[in-house]
Amino acid sequence: MNFSKVSEFATNLYDDIDNIKKKKSKLDAEKVYEFVDQISLLRKPFKEYFEMTENEYYEEESDHGLTLQHKDKKLKNMRDRVLVNHVDGSILNNEINFTYNHETPYDENGKYQVEGDLHLISFSLQVIGAVGANTKIGDIRNSLSKDALLSLGLAARAVNEWQNKKD
After folding, report:
1. Distance of alpha carbon 17 from alpha carbon 114, whole angstroms
2. d(CA 17, CA 118)
3. Among 126, 139, 156, 159, which is 20 to 30 Å from 13 by CA?
4. With 0-12 CB in 10 A as exposed, 13-18 as middle and 19+ as buried, what is 90?
């Protein structure tokens, strides 16, 4: 996996957030799915998770970082996200510690706020890309939260759905 491409994608996305919000450009959600799949942390290809229920994911794979409140709802409708916001530790000693925040891209009235998911994707990929450029992918797999990786893909799916919706 080419982590410099991940970082470049994240930087370009961050620079393009305003244009995406104005619908002058689009997020390439497929590229995000590809990054998620290339990390090879989740057991299935990412798109197979859309139709999985929260309960199925919780029982089969979750590392319990997400707040799963609707056991029968599909993951594609999940509102909780886990943002990868920082990393510390020692790359030389293979001790990588990612830190996370819970995020929701919905306001208090339940309205979707695309900027939240765009920031989540950009920031998370920026952190993952920087670490990946300096260590082995196995170290990332051993340290990264599955729920955070799932959140990346779910955020990309939600942005893609928003940008393709007729106003």
Report:
1. 9
2. 7
3. 139
4. exposed
Q: How many residues does the chain have?
A: 167
Q: Which residue do the tokens 């929701």 mark? A: 104
What one-character DSSP code corresponds to residue 88?
A: E
Neighbours of 63 (CB within 10 A): 14
| Type of residue found at 116 | G
Do 130 and 7 meet the contact criterion of CB atoms below 8 Å apart? yes
How is residue 76 annotated by DSSP? G
pTM of the predicted protein model: 0.94
CA dist 75 and 154 (Å) reads 8
Q: How far apart are CA 162 and CA 58, in angstroms?
A: 26
Q: Which of 56, 49, 53, 58 is nearest to 72 (CA)?
A: 53
Give yes or no for a contact between 121 and 82, defined as CB atoms under 8 angstroms apart. Answer: no
In this prediction, residue 82 has a pLDDT band, given cuts at 50, 70 and 90, of very high
**Separation between Cα atoms, residue 65 and residue 44, nearest integer Å:** 19
Cα 163 to Cα 5, 30, 107, 109, 166, distances in angstroms: 23, 14, 18, 20, 8
How does pLDDT run across 141-162, given as a tens digit for each residue?
A: 999 999 999 999 999 999 999 9
